[in-house]
């Protein structure tokens, strides 16, 4: 019965993309927010962003939705909308204050994730982006298990160039393979810094073991692209604005656009393959 409920609710979702990383602080939520903004720039596409980082929900702040509340209707919870074609759902909307700590054990977290998938009235959606917490534990197993009742296009894995990050990302790739979750590819975030004045590039996080590129070659995974550091990204996120719209000529924006295009191409191809199988 649960599976049937989930299938009925998510039947109108065309593509589902999970954003993962074994490591915290690599820019996963920033990537999820900008991926949603980038996809929603096409006004013909309906985009949904689901934040399942239960203990550290930063998506409401990044999307400029802090202080918003979830409304309930006859058809379920209504997402909070940034634009007409971009809806967001997060545990952050259920807290009385942004400073409230969520101190929950696994079963309660799993129950909320199921509720987000079953009770939120997403409507017709072209892309459902799921921002996950770091690691390979309860939340990840739950979302993969619940979404396997419908379909997942795959996961985008975010890393930074240094070995301490890549070490955890290899575990995440191993997790995806064990639970049969397709990997769309890896994004290397904070990859170099171009000085806005002298235009010289510096490696803030030197890739001591060859960075994401070498790891992807070794593990036979696609490298979707490298996003350079840009201080404007942090400022835009703090203000709840889209960095892609605020700095359209930045090297980081160009890199994001290429990555988003590659994700779209992968999803379309995956959809065609599924139709052939059916």
TrEMBL record:
Gene3D superfamilies for the chain: P-loop containing nucleotide triphosphate hydrolases (3.40.50.300)
Keyword annotations of the record: 4Fe-4S, ATP-binding, Cytoplasm, Iron, Iron-sulfur, Metal-binding, Nucleotide-binding
Segments passing through the bilayer: none
CDD domains: Mrp_NBP35
GO cellular component assignments: cytosol; nucleus
Origin superkingdom: Eukaryota
Subcellular location: Cytoplasm; Nucleus
Keyword Ligase listed: no
Function of the molecule: Component of the cytosolic iron-sulfur (Fe/S) protein assembly (CIA) machinery. Required for maturation of extramitochondrial Fe-S proteins. The NUBP1-NUBP2 heterotetramer forms a Fe-S scaffold complex, mediating the de novo assembly of an Fe-S cluster and its transfer to target apoproteins. Implicated in the regulation of centrosome duplication. Negatively regulates cilium formation and structure.
Protein name per UniProt: NUBP1 factor
Gene that encodes it: Nubp1
């Amino acid at each position: 019965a649960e599976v049937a409920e989930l299938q009925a609710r998510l039947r109108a979702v065309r593509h589902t993309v999970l954003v993962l990383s074994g490591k915290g602080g690599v820019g996963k939520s920033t990537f999820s927010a900008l991926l949603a903004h980038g996809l929603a720039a096409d006004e013909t596409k309906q985009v949904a962003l689901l934040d399942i980082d239960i203990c550290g929900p930063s998506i409401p702040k990044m999307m400029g939705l802090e202080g918003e509340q979830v409304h309930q209707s006859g058809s379920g919870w209504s997402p909070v909308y940034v634009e007409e074609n971009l809806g967001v759902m997060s545990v952050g909307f259920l807290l009385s204050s942004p400073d409230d700590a969520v101190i929950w054990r696994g079963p309660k977290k799993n129950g909320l994730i199921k509720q987000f998938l079953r009770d939120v009235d997403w409507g017709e959606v072209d892309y459902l982006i799921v921002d996950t917490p770091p690691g390979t534990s309860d939340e990840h197993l739950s979302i993969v298990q619940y979404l396997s009742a419908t379909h997942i296009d795959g996961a985008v894995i975010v890393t930074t160039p240094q070995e301490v990050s890549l070490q955890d990302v290899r575990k995440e790739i191993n997790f995806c393979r064990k639970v049969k979750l397709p990997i769309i590819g890896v994004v290397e975030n904070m990859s170099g810094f171009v000085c806005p004045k002298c235009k010289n590039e510096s490696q803030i996080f030197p890739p001591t073991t060859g960075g994401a590129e070498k790891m992807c070659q070794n593990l036979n995974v696609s490298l979707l692209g490298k996003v350079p550091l840009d201080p404007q990204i942090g400022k835009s996120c703090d203000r709840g604005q889209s960095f892609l719209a605020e700095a359209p000529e930045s090297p980081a924006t160009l890199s994001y656009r290429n990555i988003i295009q590659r994700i779209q191409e992968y999803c379309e191809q995956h959809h065609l393959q599924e139709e052939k199988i059916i």
